[in-house]
Amino acid sequence: MSNHGAIQDKRIEILEAAALIFAGRGYAAARMDDIAEAAGVAKGTLYLYFQSKQELFVSLLESRSEEYVQTVTAWLADCKTVTECIHVLVTLRGQFFVKNQRLAESVSHSVPGFPKDLQIRVWNIRRGLEKPTIKLMQRILPENYPVEPALVAAVVNGAIDYSVGSYLLDDRRVNLEKVARDLEFVLGPGLQEK
Amino acid sequence: MSNHGAIQDKRIEILEAAALIFAGRGYAAARMDDIAEAAGVAKGTLYLYFQSKQELFVSLLESRSEEYVQTVTAWLADCKTVTECIHVLVTLRGQFFVKNQRLAESVSHSVPGFPKDLQIRVWNIRRGLEKPTIKLMQRILPENYPVEPALVAAVVNGAIDYSVGSYLLDDRRVNLEKVARDLEFVLGPGLQEK
Amino acid sequence: MSNHGAIQDKRIEILEAAALIFAGRGYAAARMDDIAEAAGVAKGTLYLYFQSKQELFVSLLESRSEEYVQTVTAWLADCKTVTECIHVLVTLRGQFFVKNQRLAESVSHSVPGFPKDLQIRVWNIRRGLEKPTIKLMQRILPENYPVEPALVAAVVNGAIDYSVGSYLLDDRRVNLEKVARDLEFVLGPGLQEK
Amino acid sequence: MSNHGAIQDKRIEILEAAALIFAGRGYAAARMDDIAEAAGVAKGTLYLYFQSKQELFVSLLESRSEEYVQTVTAWLADCKTVTECIHVLVTLRGQFFVKNQRLAESVSHSVPGFPKDLQIRVWNIRRGLEKPTIKLMQRILPENYPVEPALVAAVVNGAIDYSVGSYLLDDRRVNLEKVARDLEFVLGPGLQEK
DNA sequence: CATGAATGAGAGTTCATTCAT
DNA sequence: TATGAATGAACTCTCATTCAT
Questions:
Q1: Mean confidence (pLDDT) of chain A
Q2: Nearest-CA neighbor of A115 among A61, A53, A66, A64?
Q3: What's the whole-number mean pLDDT along residues C25-49?
Q4: How far apart are CA D190 and CA C190, in angstroms?
Q5: In angstroms, how far is CA D121 from the centroid of its own chain?
Q6: Which of A133, B162, B180, B194 is most solvent-facing, going by the fewest CB within 10 Å?
Q7: Which one is predicted more confidently, A110 or D162?
Q8: Minimal Cα–Cα distance from A138 to chain B, Å?
């Protein structure tokens, strides 16, 4: 029997610890020592599972976004009306944003200095986070809707993230139910079939 | 005659150089040596005008956002219809985003690890960037509009930034005219008086 | 088996190297690079054993003074007459002064600019170096001796250090035997029981 | 008429300011900016009067020790008995030590790294500070006194400095009268003619 | 697989000194 | 003489990475 499972377990433990540390202090201020301690392993062990601090960071982003994409894709498959869909999107993407706020921030701060291959992986992550929304727009918008689905998706995602962010900026607790209703009111009319 | 002007000039030269370097490599990867070289001054000179790298960074953010806020406030004062206003907002905020992409990403996020006083300055910058849009919404939305102006502003700003960002992410040239028309089409209906 | 011993060894090696460098150039002119090179370790290694240059310096003072205090305390316990005691004191304190001339000068003075906690440690070192002499004076001076033992100790220690220092100032080799005899002659009469 | 006097005045003002700063923070932590500000002149002006920070420091030591030497020489010329002489010495040298404690400390810390010519000047200062005491001992000790006057002087000076220092170490106010009486009691018997 | 002591390049910052005005 | 903005060498300290055990 292979110990593949055990290896995966430790990998995941490290990622969890890394999430904690990165979210707490941001990428630059996070030290590998701290991550190792939080994960309960020695510093050298980190390098058995990840090539570098940068690679660990990108891997974490990938793991979190994968999780999100899977969940949101599954939920969106079931929803019928535009209203319902916006509700699902706001709720799930909002949760993701709340949970990973600092990670998302760190991306823009730190990635510019990363090597090309990691930059591409980050690019794919960003793209991946947009995809479920784009697919949704392709499904619900009328054939002759004059705006590209990708741009509509950008509009909707931007609206969600900034709405949630406006709460977080003031350290107010986010009421996703209310945000969903508000966004339905603002965005709904522009997205409905005529 | 005082040399106040000359001092301001050099301060601005340094800020320009810093913008170049920070935008090119991100905050963490930017080295004070590089900024000094780009500004054509010695490293030590940077510290005559700014207390630290962090303070230089925040000062840069402040300078750029002030510029934006003044311009956009002036333009919005003159526009009448919702359509026109959205057009102005998209154009100016879009320009700002294109020009300061990397910096804007930094602004729209807190800067973990910075000392308290600088964090507050960043918080004020972020708040400041929202203000013109909020004021606009207070002006153009009907009395009984059921969503807070601040949240509508977040929606609109998010929509703009992400729309522009979706072009930049793919390294495509941004057509702000087109973005403006698209956003008017998507957001317009939800913002019109009933 | 623990590697406690090995760790202590390296700590001591670093202290020896630091003693060499500090004594050679004085605290301010001593560079951490030099100490590292003298100790045969990398610069970063110094910081595994000591928190800062200042802390390394104070630790060195502590280690040297501890050594001295233990030795002198043991020897003084056995001596009987005033003459004998002065002889022991001059010999041991003189040796200490010769060996640690530069350090001793530092010890006998506060270290302006150091953080509070390190200042306190230095203060304790200075106090510690006086203690054996004070205890001795308490033992050998008559009950009704009109001068405080602490001040008599200061007199004796000052006399010893300056006597030895007067040789070192001229780069003459110190003859501790002779210094002891001379000090017995000068100080003896004033310390004898009446 | 030459402006020699005015030049001397500014030189002295700078020395006074330097004394303040050096005494307050120690040599290494004292910055030329601070000295310039305290003296009420521009930084560059310091270099019109002194070649370097090191040279300024040594000049200050010289000026202070000259003052002391002149005063003590004058006073000692008049005193007759050993008791009286010790009293004068303790008072004047004690005052000097109290006033210049920090400067004296700084010497041992900083001078090791100074260039040769300044080291020699410091050496001369140290020697100069001993001279009045040595001359005194040559005068008052009997012809056949078996200890060199220079060493007796070292003993006496060490005793004075450490006695005063033992007060300062504890931040107690020094009572020079009492110290003088105590030292007369301890040192007197060994110095009297037989 | 796991460890953690050791490494050393590289960072931000300081400050004595200079020199054009 | 006097200035003070500018310099840049030199410093301490950090921390991602390695490798002998």
A1: 90
A2: A53
A3: 94
A4: 6
A5: 14
A6: B194
A7: D162
A8: 15
- Torsion region of D44: left, alpha or beta (phi above 0 gives left; psi -120 to 50 gives alpha): alpha
Query: How many angstroms separate the most distant Cα atoms in chain A?
Result: 61
CA–CA separation, C6 and B2 (whole Å)? 65
- In this predicted structure, the answer to whether residue A194 has a pLDDT above a threshold of 50 is no
Of A179, A85, A178, residue with least CA distance to A132: A85
All residues of chain C having their beta carbon less than 8 Å from the beta carbon of residue D27 are 28
Residue B109 has pLDDT above 60, yes or no: no
CB-based contact B153:B102 (threshold 8 Å): no
| pLDDT tens profile B149-194 | 999 999 999 999 999 999 988 889 999 999 999 999 999 999 876 4
Q: List CB contacts of B128: < 8 A, sequence separation 6 or more.
A: B65, B66, B69
C-alpha to C-alpha distance for B81 and A17, rounded to whole angstroms: 51
Question: How far is the alpha carbon of B179 from chain A, nearest alpha carbon, in Å?
Answer: 8
Q: Is C40 left (phi over 0), alpha (psi -120 to 50) or beta?
A: left
Q: At what angle do helices B53-78 and B116-140 cross, to 10 degrees?
A: 10
Strands of D58-178, DSSP E: none
Distance CA B138, CA B134 (A): 6
Token pair, residue C83, equals 């003459």
CA distance D80 to D83: 8
Report which residue type is found at D125. I
Query: Confidence band (pLDDT; 50, 70, 90) for A4?
Result: low
Say what angle helices D176-191 and D149-169 make with each other, to 10 degrees.
150
Q: At residue B32, what is the residue type? A: M
Chain F nucleotides covered by protein, CB below 7 Å: 1-20
Residue A178 has pLDDT above 70, yes or no: yes
A115 contacts chain B (CB < 8 A) = no
Sketch out chain D's domains with CATH numbers: 1-50 (1.10.10.60), 53-191 (1.10.357.10)
pLDDT at A109 over 70: no
Q: What is the pLDDT of residues C171-193, one digit of tens each?
A: 899 999 999 999 999 999 998 76
Name the band, by pLDDT with cuts 50, 70 and 90, for residue D105.
confident
Cβ separation C147–D186 shorter than 8 A: yes
3-state SS, B67-109, equals HHHHHHHHHHHHCCCHHHHHHHHHHHHHHHHHHCHHHHHHHCC
